[in-house]
Amino acid sequence: MNDVQKKYLEILKAIDEICKKEALSYMLFGGTLLGAIREGGFIEWDDDADIMMHRKEYNIFKKASKKYLDDYGLFLDEEKRFPRAAYLERPEINVEIVLIDSMPESKFKRKFQRLELKLLQSMLTERFDFSQHRSIRIPISLGIWALGRLLDHKTKLELYHRVSQTGNNVESDFVFFSNERYRFMTMDINRKLLKETTQRRFEDTELLVPKEWDAVLKLHYGDQYMTPKRENYYI
Questions:
Q1: pLDDT (0 to 100) of residue 136
Q2: Contact present, 221 and 234 (Cβ < 8 Å)
Q3: Are 216 and 30 in contact (CB under 8 A)?
Q4: Where are the domains of the chain?
């Protein structure tokens, strides 16, 4: 581990300890999950750390964080789309929390919800990146981004959270990563894949991963996720 990864590990341990005290669940996510399975810890070139939590679990964790995080020198930063458990003195070192929400039963409602979230993601972007848009769509995307400048950040974020939870009043068979980037937000994930957890060695400790980690990793990285590569990782 490099020095920054050691800091990430400290945050992950703190989250694990808090969740144990409050009988809550979380799961490693993305490259952090991949590292746990393939490397037993951080991937050598990984420069961040991520976990995922079901919305109900996160809401309880959010309340509990007021009791615990300060003792670890951490705070819960909710100023962006991804909540982050961050160091008080160095907030740039943080663990992002991906939120899991239920999907509406209606196919139309699912499509409309994702469209709303995509629009809000564009509005929440601080700077417009022309390289991230096809040339034919730039005028529309730029217009949506510009429209977002008319609303304050807090209002846009509250709208995003409200729309994300549209399907939570009825527990459907499928969930999605509601605050992820759009390409991953469009995944219809069977609830069973993220229902149970198991412990997995991660550096000098054990952290929680989905019991169905193989299926979860294949969703993001394809069947060859055990083959190390630095670029073009996602399917």
A1: 74
A2: yes
A3: no
A4: 3-101+190-221, 107-171
Average pLDDT score, the chain: 92
Q: At the topology level of CATH, where does 3-101+190-221 sit?
A: Beta Polymerase; domain 2 (3.30.460)
Are 36 and 49 contacting, i.e. CB atoms less than 8 angstroms apart?
Answer: no
CA 194 to mean position of chain CA atoms: 13
Gyration radius from the chain CA atoms: 18
Judge whether residue 225 has pLDDT over 80.
Answer: yes
Place of tokens 């412990």: 199
Q: What is the pLDDT of residues 81-136, one digit of tens each?
A: 999 999 999 999 999 999 999 999 888 999 999 999 999 999 998 888 777 777 77
Give the CA-trace dihedral at 7, 11, 12, 13, to 10 degrees.
100
Q: Give dist(CA 36, CA 40) in Å, integer.
A: 4
Would you say how long the chain is, in residues? 235
For residues 174 and 104, is the Cβ–Cβ distance under 8 A? no
Q: What pTM, to 2 d.p., does this model score?
A: 0.92
